[in-house]
Amino acid sequence: MPKVRSLRTLSLKKDYAFLMMDLIRIFILETGLILLLISLFAIPLCFLDYSWRVHDDLCGSDHFPIVLEHLFTSAQQRVPRWKLDKADWSLFENLCQAELQSKMFETVQDPILTFNTVLTSIADRTIPKTSANPKHPSKPWFDDACDQAIGDRKKSERRFNQQPTTENLSNFRIFRAKARRTCRQARRTSWKKFVSGITSRTPMTKVWNMVNKIKGKNSKATVKHLKDGNDLLTSEKDIANKLGETFAKSSSCNNYREDFKKVKKQKEKIKLNFKSKNGENYNKLFSLEELKTSLSKAHDTACGPDNIHYQLLKHLPDSSLEALLQLMNNIWESGDLPSIWKLATVVPIPKP
């Protein structure tokens, strides 16, 4: 086989190693499937770092793609997020009406934790979440129609592989063309919608972030290691502890000048002359109207460690809001913050 000998000569001449050499299936519309000898080369330095496999789906192509996987890449799990656009808010409000009442939190030891647990349980039953498993970044144009079209294409492909008849081949060609057309139209529509929203005041950061999303590029880089002097931290716990220690030092009183420390120490010894009967307006209990006003002005920021999104609170019925209001007023009077409110999610953003 002259071509095989040529490949062997090339590998010896360039000091390449065979990463793979195998028979790969190629799909031809007229004849079905044929076999083709495929080979991949790698430099010796990377030879043991990768594995390969043949993708089980054509992905709309005429051949089965070859997937290269890095053997030493640690699996990173994403934090699941609420799919608020697919929430069943009517069912959510009905369940809150039945399960979130003031009398339910009168005898529990930690009312806020119980409230969060019940609210999260209701949200799990009425609002879907994104997957926690790592995958390719989702594209903004990929909608339910694209998902359905690709599912039909895969289904017809499996049917043809099981029963390679002319009819099944024809059906596969139809569904493949439909999937291509659906995805193409979705990309075009998404791009037109995005471009129409760009003005002279649109920040360039927002423009490029959207362009990268359309291309399928993930701009979020995960911190996988951190250098501390001569030590290299690789575990998430060690990295988090080191970042927390660094943040604590940045906010420490040890950073003050010595003359300021002396003045600070002297001033802190002076007792404040403040007497009050706590009748000021800022000491009064919160009202339901104040709670609703605050929620209406709140922006939909990311969830904290309790995984309670602002939209969950904004869709609470009045009876559940009154239960939450009573819990907050109890905290306001006692001054004892719940332990779950003392947690925060800190996202370190490296400088460019």
TrEMBL record:
Keyword Transmembrane helix (UniProt): yes
Protein name in the entry: Uncharacterized protein
Species for this entry: Mytilus galloprovincialis (Mediterranean mussel)
Transmembrane segments: 23-43
Keywords: Membrane, Transmembrane, Transmembrane helix
